[in-house]
Structure formats: C-alpha cells, structure tokens
Amino acid sequence: xxxxxxxxxxxxxxxxDQIARGCxxxxxxxxxxxxxxxxxxxxxxxxxxxxxDVGHVxxxxxxLVQGEGDHWDMVFTISEGVFGNAKEVQVPALLDAxxxxxxxxxxxxxxxxxxxxxxKMILQHHNIPTLPFFLIPHREAASxxxxxxxxxxxxxxxFKEKPLFIKPTCEGGSNGINHKNKLTSFGDLVxxxxxxxxxxxRQDLMVETFxxxxxxxVAIIGNGNQAKVLGVLEFLxxxxxxxxxxxxxxxxxxxxxxxxTAVWFQIVxxxxxxxxxxxxxxxxxLETFQVLDCRDLGRxxxxxxxxxxxxxPQVLEINSIPGLRPDNSHVPILAxxxxxxxxxxxxxxxxxxxxxxxxxxVSN
Length: 364
Known about the structure:
cell shape; Dna Ligase, domain 1; single chain; five-stranded antiparallel sheet; nucleotide-binding; peptidoglycan synthesis; D-amino Acid Aminotransferase, Chain A, domain 1
C-alpha cells in the first residue's frame, strides 16, 4: 500500500482534559501534554497524511460504532486508557475487534507490560536479569504480621545493608513515587504500605531489592528478529541544587520527572561507550522487548546492582508506548542524537504499522 497519503486517526488522552475532569497533576502524569499531541499531529501532516483527531477511547468507541473507522487507513495511538489496572489495552482491543491497524504493541503485550510484577515473572522465566521482589496483594490485609510473613518468605529481609523499594504495580510516569519509597526499616515498609493502600486501593504493591548502580534507559525500534537497539541513555545524579526532599535521594521521583529533571539529573547518551555494562544493558533491553513481543518502538528502564567491573544490569520495567514529545521525551532526543529527525521517527512508526497490515475490514 502507498504510505505517502494516508487517512490516519489519532487517538490520545489529553492531560489537560483529565485534569479538567478532576485528576490531580500526578494522577494525570502518564497522559499526553498539548505539546506532545500537537507535535505528532503536525509531523503526520508534514509527512503528507490526513489526520483525523479522535481523542480518548470513548470518542473512538463512538466513532467506530458509527462506521467512521471504515474510512481510516490506520490509527496512530498514544492512548493510556481511562480506568483500570490494564487501561492501556482498551484502544488496541477495540481496534483489533474492527481489524484496523495501529501503532505500537498489541493488547496482549500491553496487558503484561502494564503490570510490573507480571512482567518480572516472565523475565525471570526467560532468565533475563531483574531484581528479586515480592507482592503485597491488594485483597489481603496489610497488617504488620502479614507484611512480616511476606517479607520473610521472600528472602529480602535485609533493609539497611540492602534497602528495598516499593511501587504500585500498574502506574506510569513515576506516579506514586516520592522520597519515601526507598525502605531502610520494617517501620518504613509498614508506613509506606499504609499510605499507598489509600492512594492505590485496587492495585497490588511490589517490593523489590533497591539497585544502587548506574541507571539506564534503552530504546528499541523494530519488530521481532528485526528489532534493534536505537540507543542507551544514562541518568547521572547531579549535586543538590534545590531546597527539596529530592536533594539527597538516588532515584527519580514523580516530582523529579515531571517538574525539573535537569535540576537533579543529567541525561547522557552512552550508546557508544566501550563498556561491558552498557553492552549488557543494551542486550537485556533488546531481549526484553522481543520476549514480551513488543512492536515498533519501546523503552526499557534498567539499573545495575553494584558499580564497576562487577556491576550487573537489571530490568526495572518496560514502557511499550514511550513518550514522543520532541523537546523532552527520551526516545526522540536519543533518536536525534543517533541521526534521526522527528519526522523520520514518526514515519517509521507509520510504515511499520502498514507493513504488518493484511486486514479484512469488518462491517457494523
């Protein structure tokens, strides 16, 4: 099919709309900014495509029922969905039902990638390095007695010598992460679980060993055996510059990522660094992308245990629909440093979507 002049429906969740509906800034952190939405729209138009602005999943459902999807060549989706622990699958599942091709991974992949614990279970099965962890089920009482039981069974009862780290299993954008998520005592665990249960009552909580080494994110492009590493970024902690609770911590919180990352971290392209550690991070990033059957483009967050010669990179989580804001999202910035223009990145997503499309359209 000619991919030069397509009718492309654009599906997204506006951060501004979610805040207008009552979400806090942090609750809406995974949704798309106006700059992000406009950047994708304008790039598609520069590439010669007609862009049909759809918006969120409920708009998509209504327009599909009305038969508008019969006139679309494909859907460019960056949607996070609107409710539930696997909300990212809502748009892909609808589009699969109507056999309309779309960007990024399918519903099966996104359902797994949306849950950090299930992702780690699959990685463990495939012997891909990831930090040991245990779950605090949301349906069970988080009493000190139960917490001690789960902790003892996990073998992670180490605290001060080896701190632990707690996070919700199904959030993005560092939602739920602040300076108290690193745990150095049982009391820290009890208090943080109590706080997070209020904030995330329908989610399991995951507790894992805290990795103290270098932190990377690995961008992957392509599909299946043709997927390849686009590049590797490293996050370097800067000396304290602000009077904040974030000043003396060694991990990125929601505040750090959403307000002023540059105050606390320097982001460096280490793709071409001649080191076993970076090569290993790239290797396990690519293997993770392929094992989970991700498509088109993804970003894998990795942190090492230890530093220097014995450092061991571990997969933290995967972002199967990475940010594409050209001025501050990691993948576009890395792509530019590796010789890609923003329009070339968007064109690649369109091309790969159409290449795998051999659909038969369904009628209403």
